[in-house]
UniProtKB/TrEMBL annotation:
The keyword Iron does not apply. The active site is at H61 (proton acceptor), Y134 (proton donor). This is dTDP-4-dehydrorhamnose 3,5-epimerase. It holds the Pfam family dTDP_sugar_isom. Its EC number is 5.1.3.13. It comes from Bryocella elongata. The record marks Y140 as: Participates in a stacking interaction with the thymidine ring of dTDP-4-oxo-6-deoxyglucose.
Length: 187
């Protein structure tokens, strides 16, 4: 397994080793011992899967009280995934990074994104449809659920809206009511 550093020091790209031949390939997507050996969680509480069409933007979500770390994997399609550091005491507070995620990256490698607790998370679907699977370190905690506005000017996230064919992103009612970053309750 290869761990790739990103502009956000605690967010990592995880590339499991793939074993292939003329029949296809096999990989261990998650192995508790190997994850623990490289400082990633060895236990997850919940698996979530979403299916969305082009232009659906989910996020920027996080939980207070029972924060979740997320291991994100794209099963089909193409998303642009974003992590935002919302830990007030972090030197990277308010910084974000975006990642093109597909089932296999351009080099043909399986690639997952590790987003630890303390980060808001969101993504936009830039392919016709996308299926996303993510493991979380804790279960859903409705009382702690929070959302930051996806287009907050203070964060200035460079969403790839040009890949949506001129359409505005499609957001849930909850995400339309997200908080501005400056007034959001954070860690």
């Amino acid at each position: 397994m290869e761990i790739v550093e990103t502009p956000l020091r605690d967010v990592k790209l995880v590339r499991p080793r793939m074993h292939g031949d003329d029949r296809g390939w096999f990989t261990e997507v998650f192995n508790a011992e190997r994850f623990a050996a490289v400082g990633l969680p060895a236990e997850f509480a919940q698996d979530n899967q979403s299916f969305s069409r082009r232009g659906v933007l989910r996020g920027l979500h996080y939980q207070l009280g029972q924060p979740q770390g997320k291991l994100v994997r794209v099963l089909s399609g193409h998303i642009w995934d974003v992590a935002v550091d919302v830990r007030r005491d972090s030197p990277q507070f308010g910084q974000w990074a975006g990642f093109d995620l597909r089932p296999l990256n351009e080099a043909g490698q399986l690639e997952l994104l590790w987003i630890p607790e303390g980060y808001a998370h969101g993504f936009v679907v830039v392919s016709e449809t996308a299926e996303v699977l993510y493991k979380t370190t804790r279960g859903y905690y409705p009382a702690g659920e929070r959302s930051i506005l996806w287009d907050d000017p203070q964060l200035a996230i460079a969403w790839p809206l040009d890949k949506l064919g001129g359409a505005a992103p499609d957001l849930s009612a909850k995400d339309l009511k997200g908080s501005p970053f400056a007034t959001a309750e954070v860690y």
